[in-house]
Structure prediction request, 135 residues.
Amino acid sequence: MFSKAVISLALAASALANVFITSPVASTTWTAGQQATVTWQDDGMTPNLTSFGASLVGIYTGNANQQTLLQIISSSVDVSTTSSVAFTPDGTIGPNSNEYFVRFTSINLKDATNSQFPAEAFSAKFSLSTICVTG
Ligand SMILES: *[C@@H]1O[C@H](CO)[C@@H](O)[C@H](O)[C@H]1NC(C)=O
Prediction:
């Protein structure tokens, strides 16, 4: 059984690193089918955005130990030369929920404390409004 303390520590460690995501934030609500923009900046800590480099950006759900990729926003964006990506959230990825988050996964850089994992950065959990059309 996982302890909540362990999960919180892992999230805090991730939050300390690298890409500071300025959209979405906890108050963000995106609507499926309408254009949304992910934005970020360097947080001034190591590694910097140059080191983080090309990244996979996606919408995920889950927790610190297990995350499920629901939608790819960009399969390779260089976070040091680009600071935003516009995309359209897909309404079929899941229900209306405030449990979604954006994750950046560096393609080349490894996690500073555990080199078998890639370096990652996480947004706050945000809300996605998906419209469920039933026949
Ligand atoms: C980013 O970090 C790398 C490695 O520490 C360093 O070589 C590089 O000069 C830094 N780039 C910037 C723009 O600060």
Remarks:
- The pocket of 2-acetamido-2-deoxy-beta-D-glucopyranose is lined by residues 48, 50-51 (CB under 6 Å).
- The domain at 2-129 is CATH 2.60.40 (Immunoglobulin-like).
- The chain is about 15% helix and 45% strand.
